[in-house]
Write a structure and sequence with these properties.
6 strands, globular, about 180 residues, Molybdenum Cofactor Biosythetic Enzyme, Chain A
């Protein structure tokens, strides 16, 4: 079974070429470091516009059959931060524990973590996880929830993802 993961960097400036897409690329690098299962990446950089974010989430889940989609950026309280709204609009079920855990992890580093609105949800056999837009925060947040991601993908009927145990251990009950 071919495994495809989706990465969407939500950024007006990166999508316009004003600055390099560092957040999305750092996310891909983490996935490559942590996962032992070979995978392809479906990668997009889009502006902070809810219809466009929703369209990419739907395409990646329904057409590209990504088992995991991670978004970077657009999770704060600013008017143009609409990634959580786009995610909620395309998901059939939300998983609030992901956002709770990511905010708790971020609070160890910055008091402004309470402003974060990232969440996670399920669309079909796809897990969608919102991450902040800074590479350091992406690592801290994804590291906090990644041990549960392979098992969640198992539960929703996706492919089995194996991690590189030297750098990331997935948790599966009974193993």
């Amino acid at each position: 079974m071919n495994v495809t993961l989706g990465v969407i960097n939500v950024s007006d400036r990166a999508s316009a070429g004003v600055y390099p897409d560092t957040p999305g690329q750092s996310c891909v690098a983490l996935l490559r470091e942590w996962l032992a299962t070979p995978f392809e990446v479906d990668y997009q950089v889009v502006p902070d516009e809810q219809p466009g974010i929703e369209a990419q989430l739907r395409r990646m889940a329904d057409e590209a059959h990504c088992c995991l989609i991670v978004t970077t950026g657009g999770t704060g309280p600013a008017a143009r931060d609409v990634t959580p709204e786009a995610t909620a609009a395309v998901c059939s079920r939300l998983l609030p524990g992901f956002g709770e855990q990511m905010r708790a992890a971020s609070l160890k580093f910055v008091p402004t973590a309470i402003l974060s609105r990232q969440l996670a949800g399920i669309r079909g056999r796809t897990l969608i996880v919102n991450l902040p837009g800074r590479p350091k925060a992406i690592r801290e947040n994804l590291e906090a929830v990644f041990p549960a991601i392979p098992y969640c993908i198992d539960l929703i009927g996706g492919p089995r993802l194996e991690t590189n145990p030297a750098v990331m251990r997935a948790f599966r009950p009974g193993t």
